[in-house]
Design goal:
Helix content is about 5%, strand content about 50%. The chain is mostly beta strands and about 750 residues long. The chain has a 24-stranded antiparallel β-barrel. A hairpin with a 5-residue loop joins β38 and β39.
Length: about 750
């Protein structure tokens, strides 16, 4: 990317931000909330006398399939509050015959595959951060935190109550959310709010405050205004203690190990320093109840990304983990406790006021000895992040990440482990008032012993997203010595230019909603600006009125390998192509997703074409699911990669005139006896890692945010000849408000 473009991009972003509309888009749409005159029972009936005095919000706008008029399906919403709770009543009327469509009774379901009602709160009315709550038509709850203007993290959980009751022509949702669950600045009498309804029988998605169809209804730029008759109550002491007790047994069968027994206790605590600033503490945390990662076939040259699932790291996680891009993250919490257990930690996060947001975290990990008997002493992981709002919805962020190894003289592998690694960063994040323009510009620098140059990153992008047109331009300059030991930067020493463009057409059709092309062009150069890689791709996407989607594509790839690479199994490499070899090929493929309102759903993904060393690669993948509403959901995902090579001088001898089949199969059974009792049985067969994983997980939510977990795990060799290891864990947690 030319140097002059790098220098003008931050100025361009700032110009767009400061010249964006100064007034909130839906500022004229208001809902007035009053104190409840009498008590409210959250039972799903909605018959309490207090509701008759609440203001009614019922004129919703259609978002999908088109955003040009009022919603056809009627939804009625009322809100009230008292000294402890915010209440919501949503009456979701029916328009078409047939059963409501839901996946199961499990919480935090897939929005697209469920008849549901959810709403979005922006307590600071800054159109950047907030909360989301709701339920599907069978009463399975939904909750999460909103960040970056409308992205939802559903891993967040807290205490609140809901109830759903259905009749022939409607289903009714009642919700009570404690003020202590929310984060807000005392004295503010106007919050951002929007209500959203998804009705699968009519394929209609609607919102109370209108949202353009290209954006999710969670977009905080398009919230209306929640007007309080008096300021929300000031909160008193707000301290929650969440202790756990755990017992378990595990055995390493592969190495003929003895059974290892576990008896552990630990505790988390949440302390609200103010109504908008919280302190989280943990001592001897355990994350054995976390669901297993969905495995992926890796035929790429770089590390795969798996999301964080541990509860302690999730609230306000975006202020720490969303600095940068998906492949440029100075902080990635899964690096903490990767090998050594976490002993204790603390995290401070929140908003001192509307303009500032802060996050500070420190975690202490114990010492460990790896499989090769290499010893690593205790390590500390700390991060400090600060955000300052500028213009309408944009913000400037700074971050400091520090990893420090104590007693460094005891480290046995100093080539792999350094005494310290630090990342410093500054980022400008653009979000225009109407959300049409977004982007960022960032600078990162790493500090490690013995490294003085090639240790910085400069990157940025600018995107425009409208109903018919969308564009994005991005560049990345990553130094060859940049090191992020507490982050996720899988590739170093390159310059990348990425450009995408999309055009959507909306024909007058009884079955076709939209169609249009999308182009992606990517070029990569080494640190000396020598061309080493490219991938232009042409897509064409069709979306039907029933929400079936089909995308067809064709691509060209050019790679010059910068290091030796195993084209069949980079996870456990053996046969490698040499560094410096050049490879180019063409391919084409398709991705199809069925309509979500059927009990039987399916998806297909296919690819055929060339591959490294003039080989060929066929990828066939798919997913099938059937739901026995609302208690049982069965799902089967499978993928086959068939790679064939001919005789080629670039290939090592074992790969010439050979073929390999790489399988990934994952059947899953979800049983939801109630919306508080879940059983998940998940099997994953991965021929690439030569492993079969069985995971059985029972969760009973006997009280809000309090659980009993029973987790059984067994790993086998891929030919099922023998078991590798197995473990059984029973864990009890309890959320106690002091």
């Amino acid at each position: 990317m030319p140097t002059n473009f790098k220098s003008i991009l931050p100025l361009l972003l700032l110009t767009i931000s400061t010249t964006a509309f100064s007034q909130k888009k839906n500022a004229a749409i208001e809902y007035h909330i009053h104190r409840a005159a009498t008590a409210i029972m959250v039972d799903g009936d909605g018959n309490d006398a207090a509701w008759q005095q609440a203001e009614l919000a019922d004129e919703f706008y259609q978002v999908l399939p088109m955003d040009t008029g009022r919603a056809a399906v009627r939804t009625e919403v009322r809100m009230l509050y008292d000294d402890q709770f915010v209440y919501l009543l949503a009456v979701n009327h029916d328009l078409a015959n047939g059963p409501w469509m839901v996946e199961s009774l499990r919480r935090d379901w897939n929005f697209v595959k469920n008849d549901n009602f959810i709403f979005f709160l922006d307590p600071f009315d800054d159109q950047t951060n907030g909360f989301t709550f709701g339920a599907n038509a069978e009463g399975a709850p939904w909750d999460g935190i909103l960040f970056e203007g409308g992205k939802a993290d559903l891993s967040w959980e807290s205490r609140w109550w809901s109830a759903v009751k259905a009749s022939d022509d409607r289903w009714v949702l009642e919700i009570a959310i404690p003020f202590k669950t929310l984060r807000y600045k005392q004295g503010i009498k106007q919050w951002g709010i929007n209500f959203s309804r998804n009705d699968l029988k009519t394929t209609e998605k609607s919102a109370w405050a209108p949202v353009p169809r290209q954006f999710p209804t969670a977009s905080l730029a398009y919230t209306g205004v929640l007007v309080w008759d008096e300021a929300p109550p000031a909160l008193g002491p707000n301290v929650s203690v969440i202790p756990y007790a755990l017992g378990g047994v595990s055995k390493d069968i592969e190495n003929d190990g003895d059974a290892q027994y576990r008896k552990e206790v630990g505790v988390d605590a949440k302390v609200s320093l103010t109504s908008s600033l919280s302190l989280d503490l943990t001592v001897n945390p355990d994350f054995s109840q976390v669901e297993v990662d969905v495995q992926q076939t890796n035929l790429d040259r770089f590390e795969l990304f798996f999301p964080e699932r541990r509860q302690f790291f999730l609230e306000n996680a975006d202020i720490f983990g969303n600095f940068g891009y998906s492949s440029i993250r100075p902080f990635f919490s899964r690096r903490i406790g990767l090998q050594a257990p976490i002993k204790y930690g603390a995290r401070l996060s929140g908003k001192p006021n509307k303009g500032w947001r802060i996050g500070a975290m420190t975690m202490q990990a114990g010492s460990f000895t790896d499989a090769d008997s290499l010893f690593t002493p205790e390590q500390n992981f700390s991060v400090l992040s600060v955000q300052r709002r500028v213009a309408a919805r944009s913000f400037i962020s700074g971050i400091l990440v520090n990893k420090h190894t104590f007693d460094y003289d005891k480290v046995t592998d100093t080539d792999a482990i350094r005494e310290y690694n630090r990342n410093l960063g500054l980022e400008y994040n653009l979000a225009s008032q109407n959300n049409l323009w977004t982007g960022k510009a960032l600078y990162l620098k790493s500090i490690s012993p013995g490294v003085s140059d090639g240790n910085a990153i400069l990157a940025g992008n600018l995107a425009y997203t409208a109903k018919h047109w969308a564009f994005n331009g991005q560049f990345e300059n990553v130094g060859k010595n940049f090191r992020a030991e507490t982050g996720f930067v899988p590739r170093n020493g390159y310059n990348r230019a990425l450009m995408t463009g999309e055009r959507l057409f909306f024909p007058k059709s009884s079955w076709l909603l939209s169609h249009g092309p999308r182009v992606k062009v990517e070029y990569i150069y080494d640190e000396n600006m020598r061309y080493i890689e490219s991938e232009p791709v042409l897509f064409y996407k069709f979306t039907l009125l029933n929400r079936t989607e089909a995308t067809f594509w064709t691509a060209y790839n050019y790679w010059e390998l910068q290091r030796p690479f195993d084209p069949v199994n980079p996870v456990n490499p053996t046969d490698t192509l040499a560094r410096g070899t050049v490879h180019e090929w063409n391919s084409f493929g398709a991705d199809i997703n069925s309509k979500p309102q059927s009990r039987f759903t399916w998806a297909f993904s296919g690819r055929y074409g060339g591959y490294l060393a003039d080989g060929t690669r066929l990828r066939l993948g798919g997913e099938m699911g059937y739901r026995f509403q609302p208690f049982v959901a069965v799902n089967l995902a499978a993928q086959l990669n068939r790679i064939e090579f001919q005789s080629d001088d670039r290939l090592p001898e074992p790969l010439k005139n050979s073929s390999r089949d790489i399988w990934l199969i994952g059947p899953r059974l979800d049983v939801t006896v109630t919306n508080k009792l879940y059983l998940t049985n998940f099997v994953q067969y991965n021929s690439q890692t030569e492993n079969v994983n069985l995971n059985l997980r029972l969760q009973w939510r006997y009280s809000p945010a309090s659980d009993l977990f029973v987790v059984y795990t067994n790993n086998y060799f891929s030919d099922f000849s023998a078991a590798k290891n197995r473990a059984l864990v029973v864990k009890l947690t309890y959320w106690w408000n002091v």
